[in-house]
Amino acid sequence: MPTKTATRQQKTAEKDAKSTANGSPKTASKNSAKLKEIVTDEVNKKEAKAEFQTRKKSQTSALKNTDPELLREMLYQMVLGRIFEQKCAEVYRIGKIGGFCHLYIGQEAVGVGSMMALKEGDYTITSYRDHVQAMVAGISPEEVLAELYGKAGGNVGGKGGSMHMFSKEKGFFGGHGIVGGQIGVATGMAYAQKYKGTDNVTLCFFGEAAVNQGIFHESLNMAQLWKIPCIYICENNQYGMGTSQKRAMSISNIASKAEAYGMANEFVDGMDVMAVREATLRAIERARKDGSPTLLEIRCYRYMGHSMSDPGKYRTTEEIKKYQERDPIVLFKESLKAAKVFGDKDFEEIETKAKEAVEKAVKFAEESPFPDESELMTDVLAE
Ligand SMILES: Cc1ncc(C[n+]2csc(CCOP(=O)(O)OP(=O)(O)O)c2C)c(N)n1
Ligand SMILES: [Mg+2]
């Protein structure tokens, strides 16, 4: 049944949702004026700063009950993801990476906060925006970057590229290019976990645009009916390829869509890694107990374009800056400092370690050969 954790962020989201859902044309035009104001008005930056302080307070108290070594690893993974992808953007621009390349910059708290709540034997599956999740699952930065370079040392031998990281051994089942396609696969994976009598769970990530696909609704219905231990994580970064969610979805309160299937659901602030962790732990507990699935709507924001080829003309730099005021890595560091868990020296160490890992990955990708010609027809399925 629905969980009730009405944080301030959730209330804001509900207000947000109400402003676009169920709206008469009159309220809709009032809302679009308000939206314009939100995007352009300086006041909103102040609101973002105030929200940052509120989150900092709640995050600081949440830190006290968590193992510092785990917190260190969480921060490391977020910093590694950020630096790694900044490097991806850099090398993409000079032609080292070809094809699609979707970056996760700004969304790190979602993948790290949720995946680091998993245990051995749990599964993860995601969309094409998959580099950071792949690394959190344990695929090395070298393998991920070499895959982006299309090199033989890449995660899948240089044949998948950016969108298709995969490791059965690490419980990471891709990297999927079809919007929403992974939702059905995840439901099957979680069904298998239950069928085999394990208490393992599956985390399934997808964007908010995938929620408009039929597979989302079919999967949620079946998962709730059959008690399939799948945790559906909608990473609501508020945009599809170039369309605002507000222009494409009649009800923008995504968490509430689970109510149609009687499924537990929560709205979570995706800029707050501890809030993501705690909501995921609650969902995991339900799933391990009797297979009950959950829908988490994790509201976040991507700083970069949809992919590296996106000119980003559909939003303003003011809007991007507003979200950067609430940056998940800055917030986490400030909370860790306020809670006296770590200080500047620890942050420097973590950053140096991440930079070294990325440099090592670049060297590996550069030096790795392209796949041999004899590989041309292997691992290829054509029917
Ligand atoms: C079935 C299908 N339709 C359209 C596309 C083209 N497409 C690729 S990404 C994308 C937008 C998806 O946005 P969202 O689900 O919000 O994920 P995000 O990219 O924001 O992470 C679209 C329409 C596709 N890959 N698959
Ligand atoms: Mg999106």
Average pLDDT, all residues: 90
- Bound chemical compounds: thiamine diphosphate, magnesium ion
- Overall shape: globular
Helix content: 40-55%
Strand ordering within the main sheet? 1-2-3-5-4
What is the CATH first-level class name? Alpha Beta
Summing up helix and strand content along with how strands pair, one would put the structural category as: alpha/beta
Number of helices: 14
Element-level helix/strand string: HHHHHEHHHEHEHEHEHHH
Kindly report the CATH topology: Rossmann fold
Secondary structure: number of strands: 5
Assign the CATH superfamily: Thiamin diphosphate (ThDP)-binding fold, Pyr/PP domains
Any idea what the CATH architecture is?
3-Layer(aba) Sandwich
Low-confidence stretches: 1-10, 12-41
Describe this structure in words.
With 383 residues, this protein is an alpha/beta fold. The chain has one domain: Thiamin diphosphate (ThDP)-binding fold, Pyr/PP domains (Rossmann fold), CATH 3.40.50.970. Helix content is 50%, strand content 7%. The chain is built from 14 helices and five strands. It has a five-stranded parallel beta sheet, with helices on both faces. Strand 2, helix 9 and strand 3 form a beta-alpha-beta unit. 45% of the residues are buried. The N terminus is likely disordered. The site of magnesium ion has 6 residues, from loops.
